[in-house]
Amino acid sequence: MEDLLRRITFNKDVLCGKPIIRGLRMSVEAVLKLLAEGATEQEILEDYPELEPDDIRAILLYAQHMVAKEDVFDRVGAQG
Question: Around 12, how many Cα atoms within 13 Å sit in the side-chain half-sphere?
């Protein structure tokens, strides 16, 4: 799993430091958006031949790690 996460890199000079794939100018966010819009892994790989199947797995794992770190607070009954 950690090998997959090494595919996600950060460079302040590329896309303002957003997480990217293997130093490419392809953001994690862009691929997640494609997936959320219904693109299949195969469609993404065909449209972006520089990507590899493990890149998409790494993106999903990275997203899962980010969500796992979130704290959710119960706002029921909370008054501002």
Answer: 0
Which parts of the chain sit beneath pLDDT 50? none
Bridge partners, residue 20, by sequence: 9, 27
Give the global pTM: 0.81
Contacts 24+ apart (CB under 8 A), 6-11: 6/58, 7/54, 7/55, 7/58, 8/58, 8/59, 8/62
Residue 4's pLDDT is 94
CATH-assigned architecture of domain 2-64: Orthogonal Bundle (1.10)
* Residues 17-36: tens digit of each pLDDT: 999 999 899 999 999 999 99
Closest CA to 36 of 58, 56, 21: 56
The answer to whether 23 touches 51, Cβ cutoff 8 Å, is no
